[in-house]
Design a protein that fits this description.
This protein is of the alpha/beta class. It has two domains: 4-15 and 85-204, Rossmann fold; 18-81. It is built from eleven helices and seven strands. The protein has helices at residues 18-29, 33-41, 45-51, 56-67, 73-81, 91-99, 112-121, 134-137, 144-154, 168-176, 187-195; strands at residues 4-7, 14-16, 84-86, 103-108, 130-133, 161-165, 180-183. The strands form two sheets. Strands 5-4-1-6-7 form a five-stranded parallel sheet, with helices on both faces. A two-stranded antiparallel sheet has the order 2-3. The protein is elongated, with a radius of gyration of 18 Å.
Length: 205
């Protein structure tokens, strides 16, 4: 029996575009989107931001140094975070699961800038009983520490928790911690996964 649902955020509940983020940051730094992508994802600094080991101000200073530019924090925050589109077909599912008495926990690799923007623009985070955010626990998926934090938050045995994520590596890591876990591709596929577990939500699609 599933008591708790553990959801990823990006490309499950909110679609996002790294290309858009890189282009928007590039426009501020007078660099191309590809140059910014190489800078952000070619090293560890973006990951450190998600891990919470550097602050927004430190991230800005690093970016200014690397691009030889002067940036305003609010403009950078918007460029970094205005990249989301809600997967609205999933929101009624969250509400229905909550109404049926399931505990909802979010497990996300994310940063403070993204979370502040999401809280302002959408109500999805308020649907959860607990949030496991990488920058708060100072660990990112698939590191053991972030899953240990999730196991503490689910308030049930791991085999009674279902975890969905769009990245297969993270799903596999979840299974190694005893969670029921399947990869997320579409809302329809999620509903099929529920059907196989005798949870009928088909009326919501």
């Amino acid at each position: 029996m599933i008591k708790t649902f553990l959801f990823d955020l990006g490309n499950v509940l909110l679609f996002f575009s790294h290309d858009r983020m890189c282009q928007q940051i590039g426009a501020l730094c007078h660099k191309s989107g590809s140059e910014i992508r190489k800078l952000l994802f070619g090293g560890d600094q973006n990951l450190n931001f998600d891990r919470g080991t550097i602050t927004e101000a430190e991230f800005l200073t690093w970016l200014e140094t690397e691009t030889n530019s002067t940036l305003k924090l609010k403009e950078l925050q918007t460029a970094v975070a205005d990249i989301f589109t809600p997967n609205e077909t999933m929101f009624p599912i969250l509400d229905e699961l909550k109404e049926r008495g399931h505990r909802l926990v979010l497990l996300s690799n994310t940063n403070l800038t993204h979370v502040n923007f999401i809280r302002k623009e959408y109500d999805v985070l308020e649907k959860f009983d607990h949030l496991i955010l990488s920058y708060e626990v100072e660990a990112v998926k698939p590191e053991v520490a972030i899953y240990q934090a999730a196991l503490r938050a689910i308030e049930c045995e791991p085999e009674h928790c279902f975890y969905t994520d769009d990245i297969s590596e993270y799903v596999v890591a979840g299974r190694t911690h005893g969670l029921q876990a399947d990869i997320f591709t579409t809302t329809a596929s999620f509903l099929e996964q529920m059907q196989t577990r005798n949870i009928d939500l088909s009326h919501l699609l």
